[in-house]
Amino acid sequence: xxxxxxSLAKVCVMxxxxxxxxxxxxxxxxIRQYGxxxxxxxxxxxxPEDLAETLRNLNDLGFIGANVTVPxxxxxxxxxxxxxxxxxRLKAVNTIVTTAQGLEGRNTDGYGFMANLKDRAPGxxxxxxxxxxxxxxxxxxxxxxxxxxxxxTELRIVNRTPARAEALVHDLxxxxxxxxxxxHMNEALRGANLLVNTTTLGMKGERDLEIDLxxxxxxxxxxxxxxxxxxxxLLKDARARGxxxxxGLGMLLHQAVPxxxxxxxxxPQVTPELRAxxxxxxxxxxxxx
Length: 289
Ligand code: ATR
Hints:
This protein has eleven helices and twelve strands. The protein has helices at residues 23-33, 51-56, 73-79, 85-90, 109-120, 138-149, 162-172, 185-189, 233-240, 249-264, 272-281; strands spanning 9-15, 39-45, 63-68, 82-83, 95-99, 102-106, 130-134, 154-158, 177-180, 194-197, 221-224, 244-246.
């Protein structure tokens, strides 16, 4: 039997819109760095009505895998037949791998979140206290599951719409959780060892989170999954109070690691050089956080 398919191993990131995605920058950097032959990572603009057909034809289009971003993560989960345990639990897919049995959906967002904290705050450990998570949207699900997995003693979810936080707890079957409304923020922050923002507040064009951080212990770590701007208002306030802070860019970099390894067989490193490359693309030359 002769192989007729192209020898070019292509991977794409599919989203709608997709022009702002920095995944091609990250993966093509690694493709060059590790000398992966005949490989290419590209953007693929996929409108919602074209998603099912694109998935059906993914391999025929020459792709050995893909990343999935807004707004397709949940729909890809529903469309694919196979998933790893975590993406099945989250009901969302950010990484697609071709296996002997066909396309498999995975989710590496929570991995990226925890790997970023390990990398940038190595002295901090999830299992030393309660974690406070602001938000209960799509991104929050991956973060919540990863905090539970890392052994957070308690997860306190603060959300504008408490019912949405309750649904998150229920859907993921999370134990040791408490849901707070925004008005009870002080109570939630007391004694916590982590504060993470997963809401869209603080993002360029949105208003800032305005939180009184004084109830947080001095040992608490503050992080944001928003990375545009790199230093959100929340991180700035935390830094001014002398708290440890970790920005959200590393989550983007680290979530890419398991996908690259699955597609190309090399576990890539998140290095200062890669971070500088992405920062430069964002127009940032001084890495102050
Ligand atoms: P993502 O998939 O990026 O997490 P999302 O699913 O739209 O985005 O979730 C956005 C999160 O930001 C939610 O927790 C949302 O709170 P609600 O569940 O109450 O909607 C939160 N959020 C967005 N705008 C907000 C605002 N102005 N004030 C408070 N929370 C806000």
